[in-house]
């Protein structure tokens, strides 16, 4: 019982930090999630983390909230999923409640526009780091490399809907790796 309480407290604190220190949400959270969950706590392997991010992507709702929910469930069941989800949304919820009065006036300021321009650049960098980090673990042989480049080409050249890309990737996985090899 004490161990479960410690895990639940650790889940809340970990996802509170992730929600607090990641600006941009979703994919921008992946590098910090990876650092905390895999490197910091050792709760998941890289392969498990990638699987959870993939499922979080195809599930309705924000990727960060879905990932927190799945990771929390994996570690501590329903209570863990609720606590991890609460942890990741708490900072945004509090900040929005505090800033909502001033947000529209603040956006009109030139300094706010400059701030957001810099923030967008940092967000793109974080997303690229997440893609590179996850890609190194997911694209591991000739077959996965071919699947990756085929789906990348479909996305960039044909503007295929991301849900179709995920479905095609899953189908390729079933066709080319039917026995989990």
Task: Lay out the secondary structure.
Elements: H1 2-21, H2 30-40, H3 46-58, H4 63-99, H5 103-107, H6 110-138, H7 142-158, H8 162-176
Helix pairs in contact: 1-2, 1-4, 3-4, 7-8
Descriptive keywords:
mainly alpha
Total DSSP helices = 8
Query: Would you tell me the structural class of the helices and strands?
Result: mainly alpha
3D shape: globular
SSE string, helix = H, strand = E? Answer: HHHHHHHH
Largest sheet: none
Mean pLDDT across all amino acids: 87
Number of strand elements? 0
Percent strand: under 5%
Radius of gyration: 18 Å
How much helicity do the residues have? over 70%
User: Uncertain spans, ≥5 residues at pLDDT below 50?
Assistant: none
Q: Give the N-terminus to C-terminus distance in angstroms.
A: 38 Å
Q: How do you describe this structure in short?
A:
The protein has 181 residues and is mainly alpha-helical. Helix content is 81%, strand content 0%. It has a domain of 104 residues.
Describe this structure in words.
By secondary structure, the protein is an all-alpha fold. It has a domain at about 1-105. It is built from 8 helices and no strands. It has helices at about 1-20, 30-40, 45-60, 65-100, 105, 110-140, 140-160, 160-175. Helix 1 crosses helix 4 (about 65-100), helix 3 crosses helix 4 and helix 7 (about 140-160) runs antiparallel to helix 8 (about 160-175).
């Amino acid at each position: 019982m004490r161990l479960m309480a410690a895990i639940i407290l650790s889940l809340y604190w970990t996802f509170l930090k992730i929600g607090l220190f990641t600006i941009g949400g979703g994919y921008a959270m992946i590098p910090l999630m990876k650092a905390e969950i895999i490197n910091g706590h050792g709760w998941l392997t890289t392969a498990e983390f990638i699987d959870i991010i993939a499922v979080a992507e195809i599930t309705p709702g924000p990727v960060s909230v879905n990932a927190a929910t799945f990771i929390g469930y994996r570690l501590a069941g329903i209570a863990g999923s609720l606590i991890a989800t609460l942890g990741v949304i708490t900072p945004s919820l509090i900040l929005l409640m505090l800033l909502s009065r001033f947000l529209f006036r603040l956006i009109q300021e030139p300094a706010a526009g400059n701030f957001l321009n810099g923030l967008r650049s940092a967000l793109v960098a974080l997303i690229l780091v997440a893609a590179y980090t996850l890609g190194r673990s997911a694209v591991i042989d000739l077959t996965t490399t071919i699947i990756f480049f085929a789906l990348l080409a479909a996305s960039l050249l044909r503007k295929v809907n991301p849900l179709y890309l995920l479905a095609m990737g899953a189908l390729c996985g079933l066709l080319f790796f039917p026995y989990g090899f």
